Structures are given as structure tokens and as C-alpha cells.
Amino acid sequence: MSELPQRVRIREVGPRDGFQNEPEVIPTEEKVRLIGLLVASGLRRIEVTSFVRPDVIPQLADADQVLEAIARPEGVAYSVLIPNEKGLERALADRRRFDEINVFLSASEAHNRRNVNRSIAESLEGLGRTVARAREEGLRCEGVISVSFGCPYEGEVPPARVFEIAERLAEAGCDEISFGDTTGMANPRQVGEFFAAANQRLTGVELTAHFHNTRGQGLANVLAALEQGIASFESAFGELGGSPLTPGATGNISTEDLVSMLEEMGVATGVDLALLIDASRAVQELLGRPLGAHVLRAGPVDWQR
Ligand code: ZN
After folding, report:
1. What pLDDT score does 291 carry?
2. For residues 222 and 188, what is the distance between their CA atoms, to the nearest angstrom?
3. DSSP at 288
4. Angstrom distance (rounded) from CA 112 to CA 115
5. What pLDDT, on a 0 to 100 scale, did the predictor assign at position 240?
6. Contact of 215 with 209, CB cutoff 8 Å
7. Any idea what the Cα angle at residue 258 is, between residues 62 and 199, rounded to 5°?
């Protein structure tokens, strides 16, 4: 087996990717409390909210209040999702409250149309302007490419097309490209081949893997990416999140599963699993979700029954 990275960076996306895709609107003070628990667990990258239109995504309508209320500890990078230039202008009112933005588009025309009602070319043009403006403000930029490993409408997505989009995002000024398996269609062999090729073609940008566990292959895909030297992952605490376009699509890989697997394999994450599980329990209880396996095992419930 190839050498694995000694340590990885994890971006917790639950407060955005997760909260956006759960039907309930979580009260602002609860979001602030949960983000505090995530910081306390040792997570150093957290996607805290999004400046999408509040009438479209009411779950994140309190983006500015969340930013203003969360603590700003040293060494923790907060990122916000920015859909367009208008969203960026709204976010810039709180410029000192976050460090990074992420902009997104899909690797397939059909998914991009349904998600943002634009062609890929139109999205790239708009994102280019947004990223340029964000960089003027000294913000680090991440470009997220949804359905990088398969599209629920178009099926197979050629990696060459994904890499071309990634190159355009890098040229526009993105420091990091995240490849999203938005509906959990990737398999480990495909992921290994994808990142082997990505490493050849995309240099000078951080490559991040964002897997969903829709078909139970999320952690296997993490291992396949690790074996190609990928050392940046995105996940959501408490098994939150799905995809609003895909009914029944389960969420992101859970951060507690990711941390647990990596630490047991000797790959450092900087996260205290017990404290992370406290945060996961808190959100699952708040939303009335069945407690996940890690939460159950750590808690008073008898795991054997
Ligand atoms: Zn996701």
C-alpha cells in the first residue's frame, strides 16, 4: 500500500451544507452554540453559513447574525458559501468575521442548470468576477465542483471535463478546488484514478475531496483519495445534509466517522473525537434525528442491544 499523508485538514461543512439540507430552521443561537462545540473539538476549518437568497434557503437566512455572534478564535478559518456577486457584497458587510469564501458550480450542464439555472460557461464567468472581488478583499477562495464523480441526470462525468473546470477556477484565483460527490455516485477505484490524474494535471492548488455516503462508499472513497496523497477533506458532523435536488440522498460523510477512521489509521486530524461526538449528539438531539453509531457508542445507550 502506498504511503498515506501523516496529517489531514478537515473542513467541517455541517453548519452550511448540513443545515441547508435539513428541513427545519435551526434557531440562530443554537447554530452559534453548535459552531462553538465544533471549534472546541479542534476543527480548524468550518464552513459556517451561506449568503444565498433568504427566500430560497430560509434555513440560512440568518447568515449575518451567525457571523456576528460566533467567537473568532485564533487559528480557526471560517468560510462562507457565496452564490454570486450579490451574495459576496452582502457577506462583505461582515468582512472581518470570516476568512474564506467558497464558490460552486456543477461538472454537468444538466445539474448546473437545475441548481443555478445557468450554463457552466455562464457560471464560470460570474464566479471569475466574484473570486476577483473576494481576492481584492484578501479572502482565500475555494472553488467547489459539484457532481464531479457522476451526475444523477447525465450519468458519467468525464474527469477531463472536471479538470478543465478546475483549471479555470484556479486561473480565476481559487487557492483550493473541492471535488464534490454530491449524490454519492463515486466508487473507490474511480476516486483513486481520478486523483492520480488530478495530481498530474492540477498543480499549485489544494485538492479537496468532498464525499457523500449515499451508497455507503464514502469512507472507502476517502481511503482511495488518501492513497493518492489527498490530505484535505470535507464532512459534516452528525451525518447531516443531503442534496435538495435528489430526494432520499443521504448526507455527507460524517466528521465523526472520518476522524475516527483516520486517527485509528495513524493519520492525524487535530480533532478530539469525544468532543466532536458531543457536538454531533447535540445536533442530532436538537433535530430529533436518530443518534448515529458513534454517538450511541460514546453515550449511555447500551450498544449491544
Ligand atoms: Zn456535501
Report:
1. 82
2. 8
3. T
4. 5
5. 85
6. no
7. 95
Please give the Cα distance from 129 to 124 (Å, whole number). Answer: 9
Using the mean position of ligand 1's atoms as its centre, give its distance from the Cα of residue 41 in Å.
Answer: 21
What 3-state DSSP class applies to 8? coil
The residue whose grid cell reads 476522524 is 259
- Centre of ligand 1 from the C-alpha of residue 182, in Å: 6
End-to-end C-alpha distance for the chain, whole angstroms = 37
- Locate 218 and state its grid cell: 464514502
User: For residue range 126-162, what is the model confidence (pLDDT) as tens digits?
Assistant: 999 999 999 999 999 999 999 999 999 999 999 999 9
Tell how far the Cα of 6 is from the centroid of ligand 1, in angstroms. Answer: 25
For ligand 1, the distance from its centroid to the CA atom of residue 235, given in whole angstroms, is 7
Task: Record the cell numbers describing residue 74, joined without a space.
Answer: 485564533
Report the separation in Å between the CA atom of 17 and the middle of ligand 1, taken as the mean of its atom positions: 6
> What is the Cα gyration radius of the chain?
18
Query: Global pTM?
Result: 0.94
Query: How far does residue 137's CA lie from ligand 1's centre (Å)?
Result: 27
Q: What is the arithmetic mean of pLDDT over 167-177?
A: 98
Distance CA 107, CA 177 (A): 13
Q: What is the mean pLDDT of residues 166-182?
A: 97
What separation in Å is there between the alpha carbon of 194 and the centre of ligand 1?
18
Distance 40 CA to ligand 1 centre (A): 22
Q: Which domains does the chain have, with CATH numbers?
A: 9-298 (3.20.20.70)
Task: Assign 303 a pLDDT band (cuts: 50, 70, 90).
Answer: very low
Distance 207 CA to ligand 1 centre (A): 16
Name the H helices within 154-272.
159-172, 188-201, 218-226, 255-264
The residue that leads in pLDDT, 261 or 214, is: 261
CA of residue 243 to ligand 1 center, whole Å = 7
